[in-house]
Design a protein that fits this description.
The protein has one domain: Lipopolysaccharide (LPS) transport protein A like domain (lipopolysaccharide transport protein A fold, Sandwich). It is about 0% helix and about 65% strand. The chain contains no helices and 17 strands. It has strands at about 5-10, 25-30, 30-35, 40-50, 55-65, 75-90, 90-100, 105-110, 115-120, 125, 130-135, 140-150, 155-165, 170-180, 185-195, 200-205, 210-215. Strands 7-8-11-12-10-9 form a 6-stranded antiparallel β-barrel.
């Protein structure tokens, strides 16, 4: 049986979890909902889900932290998700072992075993750490740090760091970048990827360094 808690938010920041201040934050859980007045937290346990508008956060445990006195829910400032975390915003889905979501800034930091963003069920971005920012309950942009891998259609790109713009559906990779498509390879310091058109451009971050491309053609002679 689901346990429900409706929290009506009235946050000042326009980039926070509540895009429409009249929308409630609905938290559901299979096992329990706890209100700890000492720690100023609400804790949902067992397949917990927090939903508001188009944005939802799922996890084994969700902890909502508020700053106000006497459980004043208008001052909820932080949402911490632990275990099997899924953050859904429209067609974009982010996953990880843990997420810490700042409701004031709209920033969510996903960590654990290879956090990942899946865009419209097709393009994927994963790294050691992924940080996303929402605007009006919709994913706006993201940063990935450490062993970044982006897969888009037949292209696979790797690098040290990456930024993703959800508005333009473009990504930029920096540091030891390699883009592969079949046997063909591009290498350089920086790559710009359009995940809609699947066009990638490799550029050099240093005039003393050169970008490199290795391309294979079908040279088999016809009989």
């Amino acid at each position: 049986m689901k346990i429900q808690l409706f929290i009506l938010l009235s946050l000042l920041s326009s980039t926070a979890f509540a895009a429409d201040q009249k929308l409630p934050l609905e938290i559901t859980a299979d096992k329990a909902l706890e209100w700890n007045q000492t720690d100023k937290t609400y804790v949902a346990r067992g397949k917990a889900v927090a939903t508001q508008g188009e944005l939802s956060v799922k996890a084994d445990t969700l902890t909502a932290t508020y700053a106000g006195a006497n459980g004043n829910t208008s001052d909820i400032i932080l949402l911490t998700a632990d275990g099997n975390v899924t953050l859904t915003s429209g067609a974009n889905v982010a996953t990880g072992d843990k997420a810490v979501y700042d409701l004031v800034t709209g920033q969510a930091v996903l960590s654990g075993t290879r956090p990942k963003i899946v865009q419209e069920g097709k393009n994927t971005l994963e790294a050691d750490k992924v940080t996303v920012w929402t605007k009006n309950n919709v994913l706006d942009h993201a940063e990935a740090d450490g062993n970044v891998v982006i897969v888009s259609s037949e292209q696979k790109a790797t690098g040290n760091k990456a930024t993703y713009n959800a508005v333009t559906n473009t990504a930029e990779l920096i540091g030891q970048v390699k883009v592969t498509q079949g046997p063909n390879i591009l290498e350089g310091d920086k790559a710009e990827m359009d995940l809609t058109t699947h066009v990638s451009k490799m550029v050099s971050a240093d005039s003393s360094k050169r970008v490199k491309g290795v391309f294979f053609t079908n040279t088999k002679k016809k009989d």
